[in-house]
Amino acid sequence: MRTLVIGGNGFIGTPLVRELIALGHDPAVLHRTAEAGMQAGAKQIRGDRNHLQDLEAEIRAFAPDLIVDMILSSGKQAQQLVRFAGAIDARVVAVSSMDVYRAWGVLLGSEQGELEPLPITEDSPLRSATRAYPPEVVTVMKTIFTWVDPEYDKVAVEEAVRSGGAENTIVRLPMVYGPDDPLHRMHGVLKRIADRRPAIILADDQAAWRGPRGYVENVAHAIALAATSERARGRTYHLCEEPCLSDLEWSRNIASQAGWAGKFVVMPREKTPKHLLMPVNALQHIIASSERIRSELNYRQPVSTGETIRRAIAWEQANPPAVPSFHQFDYDAEDLALASGY
User: I need a surface site. Which of 7, 39, 136, 179 has the fewest CB within 10 A?
Assistant: First the structure.
């Protein structure tokens, strides 16, 4: 199978292309950046995903059976993609996000009303709000993920992909961690450990919150299954590690693997230093079931959870961010909170 991977040299795209090569498939990678670091065995097509028509001759020469788009951001992009895919008779696998669910909107405050029942499945209600995030958040996202469009909305992406072909597939991703993670999700815990902090504070609501996670190589494996399995035609899947850990459990796993001897302190939200508070409704958990992809595509995690954390820590310790993306550090405020006994 010839597969064109749009955005195939990024955080998740790179292990996906490696997986496709290992399966004996013939991938090409469409990207804008320099070719350094691309794996052998993948054809490279340089260009802008927003102007696929300018690349039509080169893509037609490659003759892909399948297009896997890792970086779809808006409905407009998705409409262009499915028109292009239809013209060259290629099936589409669109990489989406669990932020399409109404539960995610309740978490972020863009959806009003009752909490969404759990667990989340692929048939759970989607957001009614047209945008998951306010414009200022999208602007910050774009500094980290350069492919993010100002009109970012995965719900609109999915609507266009479904309408563009009955055999197209959608894969909704969890919070992805691991080597090359541009968000450095473990940095908040690991920096405090490296700085020899005696305690790490969590607000009580955030400590209890449960959300979906996935290790980057396991996520790439799941996308490869959706791309290469006949059963996946026309289907929608999401994936996540199970059981779904709370933030406190997740942080403790990281600390244990890092050999930290300190303690976690869970404080009432009103007593927690402000820089540690997350502006979300943490009563809305995002506990998702991965039963569909496990039963229909026989998905199993190639890398066990303990090993995923070990690998992620090793990479993070060797590659701390120059500027933390969303982690905040104010040790004076944390010391005052710890000394107060709350």
Answer: 136
Q: Indicate the DSSP class of residue 125.
A: P
Domains in the chain with CATH codes: 2-177+185-340 (3.40.50.720)
pTM for this prediction = 0.96
Indicate the pLDDT class of residue 144, thresholds 50, 70 and 90. confident
Furthest CA-CA distance within the chain: 68
For residue 330, the 8-state DSSP code is -
Instruction: Round to whole Å and give the CA distance between 26 and 108.
Output: 40
Contact at 8 Å (CB) between 85 and 111? Answer: no
Q: How are strands ordered across the β-sheet holding 66-69?
A: 43-46, 26-31, 2-6, 66-69, 91-97, 169-173, 236-238
On the question of pLDDT at 312 being above 80, the answer is yes
Q: Could you write out the DSSP letters of every residue in 22-50?
A: HTT-EEEEEESS-STTPPTT-EEEES-GG
Kindly report which listed range (22-36, 182-196, 316-330) carries the lowest average pLDDT score. Answer: 22-36
Q: How far apart are CA 31 and CA 165, in angstroms?
A: 24
Read off the amino acid at residue 130: T
- On whether the CB atoms of residues 141 and 133 are closer than 8 A, the answer is yes
Give the residue ranges of DSSP H helices in the chain.
13-22, 56-62, 75-87, 102-108, 135-144, 154-163, 187-194, 204-208, 216-228, 247-257, 291-296, 305-318, 331-340
Query: For residue 218, is pLDDT > 80?
Result: yes
